[in-house]
Structure formats: C-alpha cells, structure tokens
Amino acid sequence: MVPLLLILSSSLLISPTSSAPVHSFIQCFTNQTNSPNLLYLPNTSYFNSVLLSSVQNQRFLLSPSSTKPSLIVSATSASHVQATIICARASSLRLRTRSGGHDYEGMSYSAFKGPNSTPFITLDISALRSVSIDTSLKIAWVQAGATLGELYYAIAQNTKTLAFPAGLCSTVGVGGHLSGGGIGSLTRKYGASVDNIVDAWLVDVNGRLLNRKTMGEDLFWALRGAGSAGYGVIIAFKVNLVAVPPKVTTFNVDKTLRQNATKVVARWQELAHQFDVNLYIRVIAQADTDADGSKTIQVTFNSLYLGRKEELLPLAQQSFPELGLKATDCIEMSWIESILFLYSGARVPPEMLLDRNPEFNSSFKAASDFVKHPIAESGLEEIWKFMMEAKDEPLVLILDPMGGRMSEIKEEAVAFPHRNGNIYNVQYFLRWFETEEGVTEKHLEWMRKLQRFMAPYVSSKPRAAYYNYKDIDLGRNVEGKETSYLAARIWGAKYFKGNFRRLAKVKGRVDPENFFWNEQSIPVLQGFGSLRELL
Length: 535
Hints:
Layout: H1 4-7, H2 10-13, H3 20-33, E1 39-40, H4 45-52, H5 59-62, E2 66-67, E3 71-74, H6 78-90, E4 94-98, E5 111-112, E6 120-124, E7 131-134, E8 139-143, H7 148-158, E9 162-163, H8 174-180, H9 187-190, E10 197-203, E11 209-210, H10 212-215, H11 217-223, E12 233-240, E13 242-243, E14 248-255, H12 261-271, E15 279-289, E16 295-305, H13 309-319, E17 330-333, H14 335-344, E18 363-371, H15 377-388, E19 396-401, H16 405-408, E20 424-432, H17 437-454, H18 485-496, H19 500-510, H20 531-534
Parallel strand pairs: 3-6, 4-6
Antiparallel strand pairs: 1-3, 2-5, 7-8, 8-12, 9-13, 10-11, 10-12, 14-16, 14-17, 15-16, 15-19, 18-20, 19-20
C-alpha cells in the first residue's frame, strides 16, 4: 500500500472534501503511532479496496440513505486500536469496528444518513488475526480479526480431536460472531461460542487495554452475547476447545412436498431438540420446481454426527425413522472437513477455510425468530404456500435445533439469553444481485411480509431474535437524539430478554458518554433509572 503521507499533500489536508475532525484525527493518530500508512481516505483506489475487502452485503454501499466512513484505519496492533479510540474521541468522530464484514445491517462500515449525522471512522481489525493453540490445556487465543475458518484451520493443524463450537460460514469474523452468541453444529453438545469464552482483551473508551481481571466480571459478562461494539473494541479471545472424534459423519437428505417433506419437518420439530447431543440436524427450506415443472418446496436435512456411520444409522432409525436415512447418504470425514461440507454441500480441501474473500458480490436481508412449540402441519403448509407465492423472491428458511446443553445453561449466565424452552432458531434469508434502489425495496418488503406472516408461529412477549442476525426493522437508535433505555428496550428486549437492563447498566458504567454508539448499540442506563424504566 502507498503510505498516506505520499498521497496527502498539504493542500489535500485542507481541501473542502475533508472535514476538520478528520484532519485532527490524522494528526493525532500520526503523532501517537507514526503510522500514517494505516489510514485510508475516500475517493482513492486504496480506500475502496480496503472498504470492499470484506463487505458481504453491498446494499448499504449502494443505498442513498447510507453514508460511508470518512476514514478507514487498518490496525495491525493493539496500540493502533488504542490510538484510534483516543484520537476519535479527541476529534469528535464516531467509531465503528469491523472484523469480518458479514454484519447483517452494515453497521461496521455504513451509517444511516440524517440531518444530525456525525462523520465516522471504520476501524478495520482484520489484520489482527493470529491464532495460538495449546492442545495440552485445550485452549486457544484467537485475535478478533481472524475468521472462523482461520480459527478452525489452526485448530485442525494442531489436533484432530479438538474443535470449537461456532457457526458454519468460514468467512465470518471472530470478533462479531463470538461476542454476539455463536450457534452452530456443536451448540447442542457444548453450548454457544459465548459459553466457551474464558478471557478477552478489550480496549475501552479511555484507550486502556483490559483483560477479564482488569475489566471486571460485569463487562466480561456483557461481552458474551451483546457484542463489543457498544462497550469497546475486542482484540482477542481466550476460548476453551472441545472434544470431537477423529471421524465424524455428515449427510444431506432432500425432500420435496411429494416426498412428504411437510410431515418430516413436522416430526423434526418434535424431535430435533431432544436428539442425542452428538446428533445435529438442521433444516434448510426454499421454493423450487418439481420434475413436472410445478412449484414445490425443497427441504434439506443437513447433519453432523459426532461418531461413525455404523453408530449413526441405528440411532437415526430409532430417533427419527421418518427421515429414512440410508447408509449411502452418510459420509465419514474429519471434523474440519465437515465445516465446509455442512455449509456448501461439497467435500473440498480444508485450505478453503483460509479464503477471506467475499463469497458473493450481492445484497441480502436476513432476520430471525425463536420457536417454542412445533408448528402444525397445516401451519407449515401455509408457510410453504407463502414462499411459493413469492414469485422471484428466493426466500430461504434455516432452522437450527436447540436443546441439549443450550437448555441447561441459565438465561442470565451470560448476555446471550436464548436457552431453555426454545426448540429451534429460524433464520429468514433473501439474497439478490440487482442494484437498483427500487428493486432493493421490493425485496426488503417481501422479507417484512414474511416476518409479519410468521408472527403466530414464533415466540412472543417478547418475540425473540438473535443478535448476530441483526435486523434494523426491530427498531434503532437515532443519531442526534438521546438514546433512552426505554426507547431502545423495544428492540433490546427481543435480542436480550431479561438481560437488557443489566447490559444498559454496564454500558452506563464503562461508556457513560455513549461514545461507542450505533443504530443498535446498548443504551446508557445510570443509577436506578426512572420508575417506567424499572417496569
């Protein structure tokens, strides 16, 4: 990269396209770090290259209602993160942090445009990606800029019998995913990612580098489920690794409506959260075309079993005979190979886990619900009908089973609260490749219709949602207005349930001026709050 000092002349530093706060930040950061080559200004090819390097959702970069960062800082050390926070505060700039770029609502690299918008900096920590494995202690230190794929690959390079419970998409950044929850194929046996974090390094609003001991248990509790964006910038996590056998078994079984998909899904709802904890079966449903050209729903039962095929087959016959699992459906492989197989349906080299490039040059919208009671077959049929009537809208439903270890951990153990009583999580997903604003709005409205349609079938009071699948339609903080706890509770209780008030109290203690603000960051609550806030 070309150093910033070679790009910026003194005339550019005072040009009308660059704001005084940004000038102030550049001077402060350069004085503190002597590393101006880590800074990237808009309207340069270097800026666009860095901005797009991990963006997974293009719609925020194309939308006229969004703004881009006024500067990107590409940190390569903890000291750069400290300097960024100190200088951003001193320059009256907002700060947003990006690790992997999957961010469902683009809050790490874009902001809502409004009359009171404050220029913001994106702190890109993707260069902070080292992973250190200690197989004897069964722990790992992983920097927040690493991807899940890099973490998984590093584990597999050191051992064939240890793993880490987290999601299946290898390009997701560790910083956001682990701090926001982290559910996946090992969740039912070992809990979510947050349940296996034992320490963390975080830079707070004053630029201090803190670990679990120095930050205190309240803040460490909050980081495990509510993300770090509202509290500071996480540099690294210490995590416990979990045991897996040398060989695991995977399978994909497809069913259409003519193959009794509805009955099998109905039965899955009753059973999946009660399966042996070594058996994980998720459901992926989407509209398709049958052999005769008629509309149908294709359902894929996507599974990992922590054991050999000869153990799985009798277990599946006993636990879920409706699936009709056959020996030819089952493929034995290592745990590391199963990650990519479960995500892509193909058996590919583990080195693919190291590919950080965005998978699609596209836009998407996603949302989530938790389901507490099985949906009747008649209800499933109505859902399939809705999906088939969506015409060109490629709606996808992904159902992740809960139960097992997730039902044993108390809701208040960490900030992530979605525990006992949930039988599965459902993610709604819609991807498109067109770039016109009107087309985008059409897709977004279909997603909203689907969410309204699903209301009778999912949890209520509150209608719970998963923070890692952020959904701005649940509600948002508005820049320029004081973010009250009461207003934010509309969306906050959906993500965090009874933990939301404690999260706001922690925020009031560690970031009382609300420097770490975004559209869905935790609000500040100090003292005991008003009577209404306590209700």
